[in-house]
Each structure stands twice: as C-alpha cells, then as structure tokens.
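User: Can you help me understand a structure? I only have the sequence.
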Amino acid sequence: MPMMTASPLPVPADDMAGLSVARLILEQLKREGVRTVFGIPGGPATPLFDAFHGVPGLRLVSPRHEAGAAFMALGDARVRGGVGVCLLTTGPGATNAITGVAAARTDSLPVLVLTAQTATASFGKGSLQDSTESGVDTVALFRPITKMSAMLANPAAAGVLLRQALRTAMTGRRGPVHLSIPTDLMSRPAAGTPLAPVQYRPSTQLFDREAVRRCAMHLLEARRPAVLAGHGVNLAGAQPELLELAELLSLPVATTPKGKGAFPETHPLSLRVFGLASSPVSERYLLSEGTDALLVLGSSLHENSTSGWDPRLGAGLVMQQDVDPAMLGRNYPLAVAMAGDARTTLRELLFELRRRIARGETPPDGARAAFARFKAGASPFLDPGAMSSEALPIKPQRLMAELDAAFPDDALIFLDVGCNTLWATHYLSATGRNAFIHNWGEFAAMGYGVAAAVGGKLAAPRRPVIAVVGDGGFAMAGMEVSTAVTEDAPVVWIVLNDGRLNAVHHGQTMQYEGRTIGTEFRRFDAAGVASALGAWSRRVARPGDIADAVAAALASGRPAVIDVLIDPDEVPPIHSRVRALDKLFAGDIR
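Assistant: Let's start by predicting it. Here is the structure, written out as tokens:
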C-alpha cells in the first residue's frame, strides 16, 4: 500500500506571530499534515491540551492507556505515510508509552512523542512525577529507542527544536523522536511562526547508480533469480515498481512476513511469504531449488525474514537494497549493496534493465516455463485440507479461509502478535489492494494490532479496517474498543479465542517434551466485553458462520468484535521460530 503524506496547509500571514509554545507546536503539526493527536491528559500536560481549543482542524483522541496512544500513533503513521503524534503527561504517562515507541523504532515509523515535564523551578526538588535527571529521567529513557530525545530549555527555541525533531523523524530511515516540554514553558511566548515542511526538510530520494547497474547485470545473467521483498517496499509505496520488475524479467517474488502485501499473492510469479509462517512454495524455491541470484528489497534480513538465518538463503549471489546502509550485509555476504530508497532504486533499476534489453541483453530462455512447472507441483499451504474442515471447535485454517473470502478487497488488515499473526500471514492472501500491518518483525509487541487499528481507521476513514487478534492480545489492549466507540471509528476486531498464549504454548510443547508453563487462562467472553464497551459484537462457534458475521459487522457501521471459538490444539506454522530459538539457546548463530 503506497504511503501518502497529506499536503501541507498554507500558513496564514496574520495571527501567527506571538504564539505560545503550545500553540506553535500544534500549528506546526498542522503544517506537517497531522490531523489527529493521540493523548491522555495529565496535570503538567494540560496547557498543551488546552491549546487544542485554539487550533481547529486538529483532532485530539484520548485512548484508555498511554500504550494505546502510542500504538494508535503508529497506526496513523503507517497508513498516512506521515508523522504520527502522541501527547503524554510526565512520569508514568511517558513510561507507559515506551513499548509503542520502541515498536515504532524497529518498524521505521515516524512518530513524534511529546511528553510534559514538571515546571523548571521545581527541578531537583522532588516534585510529583519529576522526569528530570533528579527523578525518572524520561529524556534518557527514550534516547535508546528514538532517533532523537531532547528537552526544551528555552521557549524561544521551541520552533527550531520541533522542526529538528520532525526532520529527524522523516528523513533517512524514518523513526520516532521524543520532546519533553516543561509545563511552565508551554504558555510562554515562542519565537517565529510555523513553516511549511518543504522549508525545513526537503524531500530526497537517493540511490547508488553504479550498484544499480551491477544489479541489473546480475539479474539478466541469472538462470534462477528471485526477489525477497520486505517491509521497506510497503513503506516506500514501491509495490507498482516491484510488480513491473517481476513481470519484465519473469522474476519469482517472495515477501518477508512484514513485507506481505508488497506483491499480490494471486499473481503467477508469487512465492507468497518466506520466513516466519513460510509458505512451502517459498521455502522450497529459495532454500532447496538452487536460486543463483537473490534480490532483497527493503529487508534487513533479520530472524523472521530469513527462516532463522537459514544459510541456504545466501548460498547464491545476494543483492540487497535498504534505506539504512547499516543494514546492508549485516547477516549475509553481498555481491551488490544498494543504499537508498526502495521506490527510487526500483525505478532506476527498471530504467537500466530496459536500456540493456533494448541493446540485446536478455535473460536466459525457459525461466518462465520452468517456474510455472515448479508452482504447479507445490502447495502454497501447509495444511490445505484443514481449510475446509467442518470440525468443532473451528479449525484456525478454516477460519482464515472464510475470512479470506469475506474480507473486502481493499481492507487494511492489522495483525496483533501471536498465533493470529502466524495463521493470517500463512493463510490469508495479499490481493495487491489490501494491506497487512503488524509488528512481528524485530520487536513483536502484543496489543499493537488491537490499538493501532484505531489509528489506522481514523487515518483512512473510507477504507475497511479489520484487526485479527488473539485473546491474549485483546486482553492486553481491548479497552481501546471503548476509544473506537467514543470516536465513532468502526474497526472490526476478529478475536481468535482459545484460552491460551498459544504461540508460546506450542513453542514450549515442541521444545520441552510437551511441558508448558504460564500459557493458559480461562477463556473469557470477548463479545460480552465488547458489548459492555458499547460495540457491536457476536460470538461465532461454528464453521460457515464467519462470512455472515463479518458482513454484519461491516454493515453495522460501528466498532465491532467477532469472538471466534477456535481449536487451541492446532499447531500454527511456527517451526522456523522454534528452530531459531534452538539456535539461540545453543549459542549457534552464524
């Protein structure tokens, strides 16, 4: 799904001089294209919250927990392609959001975290919720998980500091930034006026021309090339260019789990997902069939995108593109390293390939026919028979098959962390119009998909937004259904109810001779919880009833929870994760 940044608003020449720090911050966020800020009021933060009354067009959404505020800001940033913003009070308001901010860092999402600070006159005196060096130093706490963490010391510098933070968040490998604002400075006069983004962070799309030329040469010479497309392709909105490249050279394309959606899985050249919850098609082709040239786009090749760093993935020639040069060659030796934006790099690669093809350089004959024969003999799913099972409780594979048929073609599909991610990644299909958004890459924060879906819906009110979550994740963040009800944000949550933290449960079973601990709890009535919070809800216990429930939930126009009782004993496609854990426990990572 291409990520689009809203056009900056024009800056009126009048009534923008002499703004307070709080007003300047909010007005600058409007110029940046921000439409919604997620935050929970608290004493020291109230001057910033009160300033919303003077800034029409900027919406404040108050979630039920600060972690939800951070996750919603991530959902907003991911769907809009611009800066997501969460506004938090000092002390626990700030620390409660740390998990969400860390998730933004690993997912390369530009999120601005604004936290309040106690008054400057109280520094070092032990004031309530002191977050300076003499208390719980929030600037220091956020520093390892952000691209920038700073405290405003002079109200005259508010505009400069804010624009530095926005520029840092939105350039290079995008990521979160944090500013701490002392409460007494919020109402002080600020210097200057808001600026248009083009005035302080010009857009740049970089690529390495010589590396692109070498990549084109290797692709044209390879007999069994393939592409592994990652999260960076989705972030750059480079899906059309990837499709064009694949069709130009008849390149088979697999995606990483977080790259799901970068290439339509209905396409004849699709290998579906490789890595965590791999398709048998991608595992066989990339690991066992002798691929001689692998083009990696927008992936750092971490554990979940490499099937636990499988050495067979790098057995042939590897070419890697990433916006962050530090990711190039981190885990596999490279023949070509391409630092730069995925979309720009692909456009230049297409130009170079067409130039070479026009002068007579063509790929070896027979590749398309050979790949078609390969796909005809391979199943894309581990257990296709279970997808039509009539057994009770509902098989998760059957649930996914029904959801795949019932979901609108252009849905934004948020996945929480757990077995729901594994089932959905493996069995649901990317159509080229829908999008899969989750955090099980390098961080894997439970509750993310539950809350981030609300931010995603507010960012794209005309698109269907569906969250596929487990009962464990729903228990962590399900109170945000109340936020959706309050804000009239009609997200549909599908809760896989099995009374377990089942990804961990099955992992323990496979690793410890059937022993488990700490993974089971009494099943709860997720539909009843949702109803009590004011949402539409339905419990589903029989296969064949899923499609009607999804249609009714979407038609309700309300936040909706579908509580599905599933078979807890079905083992999800978690084998690559278990193999990686075995390596980690043995210290055998090479």
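Now, to help you interpret it: Residues 21-199 form a domain with the Rossmann fold fold (CATH 3.40.50.970). The chain is about 35% helix and 15% strand. Let me know which part you'd like to focus on.
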